[in-house]
Structure formats: C-alpha cells, structure tokens
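Help! Submission page says 'invalid entity' but I think these are all valid:
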Amino acid sequence: MIRKKILLLGDFSVGKTSLVRRYVDGSFDDKYLTTIGVKISKKLCSIENIECEVLIWDIEGSTPSKKISLGYYKGASGAIFVSDVTRRETIDSLDEHKDIFLSENPEASFVTAYNKADLLTDIARENIELDEDTFFTSAKENSNVEALFIKLVEKMLS
Amino acid sequence: MINNDIHDNQNELLELKALLFEEEIEAFNALEKKLQTLQLELNDSEQIIHKITPLFDQVLLKKFEDKDERTLEIYAKYLAQIINKSAKNNLPELSKSLQSVISPAISKEIAENKDTMIDALYPIMGGMISKYVTQAIKEMMETINNKIEDGLSFNKYKRKMKSKVTGVSETELLMEESSDATISSMFVIHKESGLLIAEAHLEDKEIDDVHMVASMASAIKDFINEWIKNNSTQSEVQLLSYGNATLYIESAGSVYIIAFLDAEPNYEQRKEINTFFASVIKDYASFFQKFDGDDSADEIVSLSKKMEEYLYTHSHTKAQQQSKIDPVKYILYFLAFVLIGYSLYQFNDWYRKSSLERTVYQETGEEISIGSEDEYLVLNGQVASTDIIYKIESTIKKHTKEKIKNNLLVPMTYLDKRFNNESQTVKKSLSKVEVLEKKFTNSLDDLQTKVLTLTKALAASKEDLEQLRKSTTDQIQVLKEKKEQLKKVVGIKDTISSQLDTIFSNNQFYNREDHTLDFRKLELFRAGNSVSELEAMKIVTETFNQYIKVISKYKEYIEYIIIEGHTDSSGMEADNIVLSKNRALAIKEYLERHSHIKQYNMDSILKVEAYGSSKAIYMNDVEDKDSSRRIKIKFMLKESQILDNVRRVIND
C-alpha cells in the first residue's frame, strides 16, 4: 500500500477541521489542534485499484502572534487549500499559503476548496470562476468533500 | 513767540488727534491697560500655568488621539526615565501606585481578551517557565550530587569510575541506575513526511493506528524542536514522557527511530538503541532516501524483522540481567554481616568479662583482670592471699561454666608468713601424730590377739555350721517327700475323678460334673415297675466294672459305693420312695452277682439310697419321665481316713 502525507491549509475558521471530520476514517482528538497546532487523521482511498492511505495533517490557521511550524509542511505529497467563500480575505490569502507550501514541497500536488458554499446564492456562485482543481465544498451539506480529496489523491498518484 | 506758536500747534494737533482717532485712542488705552495686566501676569508663574495648562492638555490629547509617533516616542522616553528615577528614589511607593492602576487593568484585560493576553505573555512566560524549570533541575542535580558525595556505598566508587571512563556525569548515571526500562515497540519514521516506514512490537504490545501515531509523534517532535529552536538551543528533543510511557527519539539522516518504553532508558540502554539504529542506517540508508510511502518494498519486511529480533533479544537480555545476582554486592553484604557479628561477639565477650571483674571486686575487694585463652577464662593480677584466690575462683564459677586458668599471684611476704605459720602447725600436728601412732600400735597388738581368738572360734563354728547344713538338707528332703505324700492324700478325690474322666471320656452314662454313673438314658425300668431289663442290666454291669476298677485302686479311702434309685413323679411319693429303693436294691443284687465287685472285696461298701421323685428330670418345665426313672452310682470317700493319713504324714 502507498501512504501519502497531505496538508489542509487555510486561514482561521474556514472549515478545514469540518471538512476532515466529514471525510476521514479515524483521527486524533481535536484538542491536539489547539495544543500543538496540528491534528492527524487518516483516510483509505482506492483509485483505479490502487489503494492509498492518506495521512491528513489538519494544520491550525496562522495568526500574527502564532506562526505555524514549517516542520509540519515538510515531506507532504499534497495539500488542500481551504478558504471561506463568504470571506474574501480568506480567498485572497490562499496564494500566500500556496507559496509557503510550494517553497517546502515544490513537486507536491494541491487542490483548492471554496468552503461553506451552502451559504452562497446561485448568482454569487455563477460569478466565481473555478478551474478543474478548485471546488465549491460544504462540510455542512457534505457537498464535494469526497471529490475534493479524491482529486488530490489522483493528482498525487498520477 | 515762536515757542508759543509751537505750543499752540501741538495743542491743536492733540485736539485734532482726539477728534480724528477717538476710537483708536480708546482702543490704544484699552490695549495699554491689557499690556499692563499681561506684564503683571507674566511675572506671576501661577497665573501663566493656570492659563496655559488647559491649552497644553487639549493639544496633547489631540496628539495622543491621532497617535502622533513623535509625541509617543518623547513620552515613552521620559516616562521610562521618570519611572526609573521614581523606582530609585522610592520603589515601594512607586510599586504601590502602579499596582493600584495596573492590576485592575490587567485583570480586566485578561477577562475580556484571554487569548490575546496569552499570545502576548507566552514568549515571556514560556521563557520564565523554562528558566525556572532549568533552575529547578539544576538544583535537583546539585542535591543528587551532594548525596553522591555523602554516600559511602561501594556503588559510589563504581559510579565515580564509570563517570570518569564514559564522561557521563555521576548525576545522570545515578538517575539511570534507578531506571529499568523495557522497549515494547519501535518505529522507524521518515523524517520529512512523518510516514511510518517500519515497526516492531513485543507480543501483546501492538499499537492501534500505528501510522497515525507515527505521524502524531512526528508532529509533536517537530513542535518541540521548533520551540527549542526558538529558544536558541542546538539540540533536538530525545525523550518524551507521559505517565509510565516514554518515547526515546534518535534522529539521523532521512529517518528517525522512536523506541516506546515503560520508563526512561538509562545511559547503557540509550547507547544500545543508538548502536542498533546506526546498524539500521548503515544497512538501509539508500532505501530510506528513496522512500515514497510505498510499504510493499522487501526492505521494509527485512527491517521489521530485524527490529523485532532486536526487541526480543533486548527483552530477553533484560530478563537475564534481572535474574543475575551481583556477586560483589552479596560478598560485601556477607563481609559486613560477618564483621558486625564479630564485633557483637567481641563486645559481648568484653561486657561479660567486665561484669565478672566487677562482681569479683564487689565480693572480694580484689581487682583482677579476666582474659581468654583457647576455651579458658584466664585470671590475671595480684591478690592479698591464697584464700582470696579460691574465693575468686568460686565466685567466678557461680557466674559461668567456663573452664578457668588461674594466673593470680600473691605477694612473697604473704607466702613467707603463711609458710612459717604452716610449719608451726605441721610440727604440732606431727607430735600429735606420734602420740597417735603409739596408741595405734598398741591397739593393733590387741587387735591381732582378738583376731586370732576369733579365727579359732570361727573354725569351730564352721564345723558346727557344716553339720547343721547337712542336717537341714536331710530334713528338707524328708519334708519334700512328706509334701508329696500329703499332696497325694489331699488330692485323692481329684485323682480318682481325673482317672474316671479319662476312662469314661466317650461314655454316655458317665456324668463328668459329679463323676457318677447315670443311667437315665438306659430304660432300665418300665413305669411303676422295679424289674430291670436284661440287656440294659448287662450294659450297667460292664460300665460298673470299669468304674469300680478305677475306684478299687483307692479302696482304702472309699467309704461307700452308693446306688441311687429314682422314679418319675407319677403316683404317691411314698410309693415312689419304696419303688426307687426297690429299683436300687434290684441293681445292687444284680451287680453283687454279676459284677467284679466281690473280686475287689468291695461288696461290703455297696449300699443303696432311695430318692423317689424328688430329683425327677424336667425339660422345659415338662417332666422327662423315662429319664426320671433311673439309677445313679457314685462313690463316697472316707474323710476321716484321709484326715488320719494327713495327720500321720505331718507327725512323721
């Protein structure tokens, strides 16, 4: 079996932990997130008969007073960048997260989640352009959560 | 004139001024008055401050509200100086003043913005905590070091030597000695990704979700390393402990190893794990560098096996080490035990001898010393007299059963005096002995004479005695013979009875109880008749002959041979008596004619006795009439004859 480390990155309160909770088979208690800034979960995926277990590092959103340890970024094969679609600044900061991640893992794959999409109106949704690696997701309505992860795994294994 | 003109012109000019500049002049006058007032105020600083301060306040407030950097910078500078100066001049007062303002403000801020305050304080508090923890550990180590210095155990020197050789401080070695850890699991983890490459566990020590645990351990390690780095320390975290669980982490190249233990590993264990880890790195370095998360590689299988073997070997070795007995320790314990035992023995010996010395002093007033030699108590010293020596000996014997070697001395002056006294006594005794000897010699002569006389008398007595013995022996023989005769006479009845019992042992007409002939089973007579049956009479005769043959041997002691006649209970008893008598007489007559009684000359003592039915025979309360009609024959001894014979034997 193949195992890969992936990261969930994004600002505070964009719904990273909720996405993980929706998706995973098993995880550590949420208290680790507030203690050391990361929570590990796992999920077994099967893509075209290839089994891959992803170890998901749900990394706490950074603040000016509390920077994330770069050690967490190392050795990741992929990342999911999460933003809150209702908060513009969380979408704007995605590039910064991507830059940091790719500086540590230049060959890694990634996908992007515009989370809390259930709060968007249809008109607003139509006005946002998406590429093939970006998804509207809703942990609340379990929308596109699995597709998001599967896409990332596909990219990592390709 | 001219002067007057000038004067007039000036007046006119003034009038003209007054007319033209009336308002200005008033204003000027007013200004002049104000100027005078200002001049007065300028000289009064209090007035100036009173006027200017509100303006300054307004300006300063405006600058603070606008967060004017220059203003803040100046104020920060002077505020710091002011506080410093106040602190130097009167620190308690300053603290009191600041406390009353700052404390409520901080409390309020913490209550309202907890997270912000923690973020702000963490860098300071973290450093402080680290500093105090470091200080506490340092103090603890110093305490342990002091204890090491104070220790007297063999281990102290062993530890000191080990510390010199290995370069590890005694404190660490001491802490390591107290640990005894077992490695239950071992992980090899990819350093960058935190992915688990290989794992091994002891039996029943498997860990659930190993890959998540490996990742989490990796994250914790990164978190702590990051913190250490922020604190300008070059080292990496090596030990993580929580409760009884300890993770020992050793890092190298692209991987690190985590050993899960039940206690902190000691120096030797760490060295052992590191050696093992070095061998793993050496064998699998290229594989580790290429590791991409695929766990199907053969190297992982062989590495897991190698780790498992190490765990079991280590576990086994530890069990062996635990079972080992440190011989040096036990030898030391033994020696200490022997030393204590010997000391106790010595003390007890000393105490016992001292007690004896005191007792001797109390009872005799003499000071002696008591020692030991082999199994003896040796008495040393000088005493006043030989009598006291014996007294001392008896005193000691009362308190101990040990053998005594007496080395006590007495002064020569005492011995001289004692010798003279003894000589006088001996001389006196000798003269007494001489007198006694003379008396003894005389007595001895008398005694010899008496012995001679006695010897003669004894010889005479011996002859008499021999004769007496011989006579007595003869008498005893006679007595024995008489005793036999007497026995024979007295036991005549038993002798006859015994012989009869033997002869008639199987005869149905012989009664062993009274040694009589009883013909009840032989129907001699029909009822009411005294004529006997012929065949039956023949049997009676034969039986009687045997009977009389025995009795005849003792004829001289037999008074009568009695034939008893008996009937059944039918009819009148008077008739029955007559009938029984007739029956007995009929038998008597028949026996006189047909038996051997005459040949034995005993017919004269044959007589009859009639009993009628008085001795009729009953069986279960029913009379057996055939048996009742019967004849019995018995003998009667001459009691007087026997008594005469006895008397004669005795008289003889």
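Support: the input was valid. A stray whitespace character was the problem, and the output above is from the cleaned input. The CA atoms of residues 382 and 409 of chain B lie 4 Å apart.
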